Amino acid sequence: MEDATKIIATSRHGEPATATLSSNSGAQAWLLEVTGIVRDYALPRTSLFKPAAKVRALDGVSLRIEAGQSLGIVGESGSGKSTLARIVMALDAPTAGSVRLLGQDLHRLPREALRAARRDIQMVFQDPYGSLDPRQTVARIVAEPLAALDGAAAGSRADRRARVAEALAAVGLRASDLDKYPHEFSGGQRQRIAIARALVTRPKLIVADEPVSALDVSVQAQVLNLMQDLQRQFGIAYLLISHDLAVVNHLCDEVVVLLQGRVVERGTPRQLFTAPAHPYTQALLAAVPRAGPR
């Protein structure tokens, strides 16, 4: 199996791209449109007579994703990329700006409407150990997002179990795994369970926050290849959060580079790998191990 650290040598992009996702001409119905996101956090007060100071985690971030496409958000720890993921998922509220999924502003939807919208957007978290409840069976873990659907959409108990088995099969696990517990699986298998949980509602967009960084290097490429296969099979779009340019090069059509909450560069992986313009992008690229003889 190819090491994830060598993915840079075999990007999904065989030919030079001439445009980024956000440069399409004509009327465009975007799957996800993030506009001018600002997120401020108040610091602890140091005086009774002065307002609390604020730190700006995100500063005017905008991006768009088409159906079936992948956008990577790259930056080091503290760049704001995970905060952005939480805001896109409506797990945190922006100070300013909007997040539109299929034209709906997620942060302005009533609770029930937001709950229904979650059918179309799911998340895969970084830690396959911490994101799965050890007290629940795989069947219950994977079925969890179905609870957000109304009765007709969720189906009967038998229907739900069939959908869970279908999702497990899609990620390379067996129906016999349904009644097992997370501790019975390896780290890579646990992340496959987490991906199956995201698939079970048949979403249009999956937000993946560092989906392979907690895995052994020998397993990382397997999970990335699985995500790519699922995209081809189901037409899923990805918003992929990573600190590693090699990872987004493997999976993404466009990359946004985030530094201290601001977008400093964007382009196709080929553009960023061959001609990075910003010094920060150049530094990230220099940190990527390259395949081949030394």
Automatic annotation (TrEMBL):
Transmembrane segments: none annotated. One of its GO terms (molecular function) is ATP hydrolysis activity. InterPro entries: AAA+_ATPase, ABC_transp_ATP-bind, ABC_transporter-like_ATP-bd, ABC_transporter-like_CS, Oligopep_ABC_C, P-loop_NTPase. The keyword Protein biosynthesis does not apply. Residues 43-285 form the ABC transporter domain. Residues 1-20 are annotated as: Disordered. Pfam families: ABC_tran, oligo_HPY. This is Peptide/nickel transport system ATP-binding protein. GO terms for biological process: peptide transport; transmembrane transport. Keywords: ATP-binding, Cell membrane, Membrane, Nucleotide-binding, Transport. Belongs to the ABC transporter superfamily. PROSITE patterns: ABC_TRANSPORTER_1, ABC_TRANSPORTER_2.
